[in-house]
Amino acid sequence: MVTPFRTTISDAIIYPESDGKPMADSTLQFRWIVTIKENLEILFADQPDVFIAGDLLWYPVEGNNRLCQAPDAMVVFGRPKGERRSYRQWQEANIAPQVVFEILPHSHVGVEMTRKVLFYQQHGVEEYYQYEPENNELIGAHRVDGILLEIADWQNWVSPRLGIRFALTADTLKIYAPNEEPFLTPTELA
Fold first, then answer.
1. Do 31 and 173 form a contact (C-beta atoms < 8 A)?
2. Would you kindly state where each structural domain of the chain is located, as residue ranges?
3. Closest by CA position to 24, among listed 33, 14, 15, 16
4. DSSP label of 90
């Protein structure tokens, strides 16, 4: 007896592992992406069910390979650490990233960022942080009653999910772990 070969929606559709865009447009942007991602890895190193990634394509809906984003850094509580070529939400207990970071280049396009925020709103992100280091501009939002609302007061803002504190000085953004240790660049950590 021959068993017919069956495919699922995911088997028939190719989900690209790259969007063809560079990870960063400058060394400053890249340094910030790496610093945030790696300090989050350190912060949650002892928690096996916290997955952290940088510049990884996230597909929220099975069957739609055009609906995706690649946050500069994302944190997913409830998913194991490990290697992935993309984050396919339906294969990850349907858990969306709860926290995303975007580090903007100096020449960012407002329309593109608006689309990203709408994507994050629609697909369940709880906290969204956007920093443009060249102009030292920080904006963010957190989910209240199902809606991402802008964080109006950054004075000692603490991320509800991550427990990290943001302090925007006249010159730069400083991020502090729950133990008040500052986020450091990999070179500073070494």
1. no
2. 15-189
3. 33
4. G
Q: Which of 14-18, 33-37, 61-65, 115-119 has the lowest mean pLDDT?
A: 14-18
Q: 15-189 — its CATH code? A: 3.90.1570
Radius of gyration of the chain (CA): 18
Model confidence at 142: pLDDT above 60: yes
How many Å apart are CA 166 and CA 159, to the nearest integer?
Answer: 8
Per-position DSSP letters for 101-130, written without gaps between them: EEE--TT--HHHHHHHHHHHHHTT-SEEEE
Please say whether the beta carbons of 168 and 155 come within 8 A: no
* Cβ neighbour number for residue 2 with a 10 Å cutoff: 4
Query: Taking 90 as the threshold, does the pLDDT of residue 158 lie above it?
Result: yes
In the structure, what pLDDT confidence band is assigned to residue 7 with cuts at 50, 70 and 90?
Answer: very low
Calculate ∠ Cα 21-85-44, nearest 5°: 100
**Separation of alpha carbons 93 and 187, rounded Å:** 36
Rounded Cα gap, residues 55 and 92, in angstroms: 18
Tell if the pTM clears 0.85, that is, is over it.
Answer: yes
